[in-house]
Specification:
This protein is mainly α and 391 residues long.
């Protein structure tokens, strides 16, 4: 089958090359050829660096690390629907129900993302970057299972066009495009993704409070006591860790996210310093808020660090968005600062902002904006230290 496709691509290659009748569509041809087969192109000018990993392989490995989250997300969507509908299903039936919810979201995301990528590639006459594969694979995982498809189209278009293409494409963007797609939905259609109501593909009118919104809703209470008193959902630490709770499609199972982090660190696609910095920042700031809890009526101050780790999308955002190399820091010292700042801000926004109990999205965007400045200070510090040594 693949050899048959290769013969077809080779047969019509000349028509898409310079001077051919379909020259303007060369990015479309090149993208198809690159996705299906390994490219035979070589570097035309120095420097020449030999490496077994190319951009396509990096992107594919990241997408592979996301597949378990899609599988569990499908099962959990079906499970939450069964709970809401008060019916019983097998694990496979839950998976099949959830998969039918997810597949249209994936299809619409990739279709709208590919449209803009190809359009900009044709207009600018440059190859299509494989980066949009990861962006379009991440966007559905950040969304509620019952999100309207037309909102996915608009959000994906915003994330890719405003978040990436207007800056010049892959490698030029300041903010994470997948995260900007979620931000667009949050601010434009807050009733769909506000974060204070559970996201369940359930019967009409079914609702409930999220684990983060429960302590944010009342003053002067202990967060753990409030979570343990909930009967509609199991918000115990272990259940939040295993992911059998309502939430975005890919954020709930923390064990799978940890496995993905280990895999991506091992193959050196993401940097461990950002992750450990984020953990240090979150735990430290949570301990500080715990110290102030006796002097405050803010119930969010009573959430212990180990609960902050498994509540909401902190781990998902840390592994798949805060570690993105384009929008993050590039110096090792900068990565520590970047991660610590992100983790600290997550707890601050969660605890102090009553209108938005989940702080991950805004925290990542904030540190994205300051990543280049953090690197600049690190580089200047190194320069000044070397000058002092040779003075």
């Amino acid at each position: 089958m693949l050899s048959f496709l290769l013969k077809i691509l080779d047969k019509y290659r000349d028509k898409f090359e310079k001077g051919g009748a379909l020259e303007s569509l060369h990015p479309v041809y090149e993208a198809t050829d690159t996705i299906l087969f390994s490219t035979d192109e070589v570097t035309q000018s120095g420097p020449h660096i030999r490496d077994s990993i190319d951009t396509k392989r990096v992107m594919i490995l990241v997408v592979i690390s996301l597949l378990p989250l899609y599988i569990f997300g499908s099962i959990n969507i079906g499970y939450q629907n069964a709970v809401a509908s008060m019916i019983e299903r097998t694990g496979f039936q839950n998976f099949w129900f959830g998969l039918n919810q997810i597949l249209p979201i994936i299809a619409v995301t990739f279709a709208s993302g590919a449209f803009w990528e190809l359009l900009f590639a044709i207009v600018r006459k440059h190859p299509v970057s494989e980066g949009f594969l990861v962006t379009c694979a991440l966007i559905p995982l950040t969304m509620p299972p019952a999100i309207p498809l037309w909102q996915i189209v608009i959000a994906t278009s915003f994330g890719i066009v405003i978040g990436k293409e207007i800056f010049g494409g892959v490698g030029m963007n300041i903010f994470n495009p997948a995260l900007l797609a979620r931000v667009f939905i949050f601010f434009t259609y807050p009733t769909k993704i506000s974060g204070d109501k559970v996201w369940v593909a359930g019967p009409d009118g079914y609702s409930g409070a999220t684990a983060l919104s429960i302590p944010a809703s009342e003053l002067g209470q202990n967060a753990l006591s409030m979570l343990n008193s909930v009967t509609q959902f199991d918000y115990s630490w272990w259940n939040l860790f295993w992911g059998w709770v309502p939430g975005s499609i890919g954020e709930t199972n923390k064990l799978l996210i940890i496995f993905a982090a280990i895999f991506l660190i091992y193959i050196k696609i993401i940097n461990w310093r950002v992750i450990f910095g984020a953990l240090i920042g979150l735990v430290s700031m949570a301990l500080i808020t715990n110290l102030f809890s006796p002097f405050s009526t803010n119930s969010m101050f009573t959430i212990p660090p180990h609960y902050h780790l498994v509540m909401g999308s902190f781990l998902f955002g840390t592994v798949f968005m805060a570690t993105e190399p384009v929008t993050g820091c590039h110096t090792n010292q900068g990565r520590w600062v970047y991660g610590i700042l992100f983790g600290s801000l997550t707890v601050i926004i969660r605890s102090i902002n009553p209108a938005y109990p989940e702080g991950v999205m805004l925290s990542i965007l904030f540190v994205n904006a300051f990543a280049a400045l953090i690197d600049w200070f690190v580089i200047q510090s190194n320069i000044n230290r070397r000058k002092a040594r040779h003075a």
